[in-house]
Amino acid sequence: MNAVEATPAPTLREQQAEVTRERIMSAMADLITTEHPSEISIDAVAGAAGVAQRTVFRHFPNREALLNGFASWVHRRLHTDDDPAQPTSPAALARATRVYFPRFEVNGAILRAIRSIRLSRELAERRRESRKQYIATAVESLTHDLDEADATRVRAVLHLLASSDAFFSMQDNYGLDSHEAAEAVVWAIDTLADRVKRTKRARGSA
């Protein structure tokens, strides 16, 4: 039996680079909540992070790399070791909103700000496909015997319901906090799933 190779510990230089990168990202987070991303300069980020401009360029060679890196950094902040497992049913997807909506609320200012960031086409497409696969897996047990048009409608609605866009809409328009919004989504997903099941049963008995 082959021995499992231990992952080498990061070198001091790698640790320092990670600390510097974190400072740059934290500075970006502070700036982006008060200024539009298009108005944030590399020089401003360097000043807020307390590093030289060339240090920012060492980590992010241009503005696109900086903005993409920041979007990825924010995405990682929303996910922890306590994340729910990949949902494999609409009910599990609904329950996951009880975990993620409070995180959307805590990181609300940053999440709202990055909506205006124009991500690279590659990163945007990768995020989009990953999210669509997440939803498809969550509802496969409900949609596997639907025709593709109906299955697509179900996936599209649940994609929206379980999103930060849905939470911010309920917060802004109806004053719901993360708990109230999550419970509204749980109700909506349960209602939709029940409707789909009843429709399938009716078709089967027709």
* Structure classification: mainly alpha
Euclidean distance between termini CA atoms: 59 Å
From the spread of the alpha carbons, the general shape counts as elongated
Work out the radius of gyration: 21 Å
- Beta fraction: under 5%
Q: How is the biggest beta sheet arranged?
A: none
Total number of strands: 0
Number of helical regions: 10
The portion of residues assigned to helices is: over 70%
Low-confidence stretches: none
Descriptive account of the structure:
- This protein has 206 residues and is an all-alpha fold.
- Helix content is 73%, strand content 0%.
- It contains 10 helices and no strands.
- It has helices spanning 12-32, 42-49, 53-59, 63-77, 90-106, 108-114, 121-143, 148-161, 164-174, 178-205.
- Helix 1 (12-32) crosses helix 2, helix 2 packs across helix 3 and helix 7 crosses helix 8.
- It is elongated and about 70 Å long.
- The protein starts with 11 loop residues before the first helix and ends with a helix.
- The relative contact order is 0.10.
Key terms:
206 residues; mainly alpha; 10 helices
Topology:
Elements: H1 12-32, H2 42-49, H3 53-59, H4 63-77, H5 90-106, H6 108-114, H7 121-143, H8 148-161, H9 164-174, H10 178-205
Helix pairs in contact: 1-2, 2-3, 5-10, 7-8
State the gist of this model.
With 206 residues, this protein is mostly helical. The protein has helices at residues 12-32, 42-49, 53-59, 63-77, 90-106, 108-114, 121-143, 148-161, 164-174, 178-205.
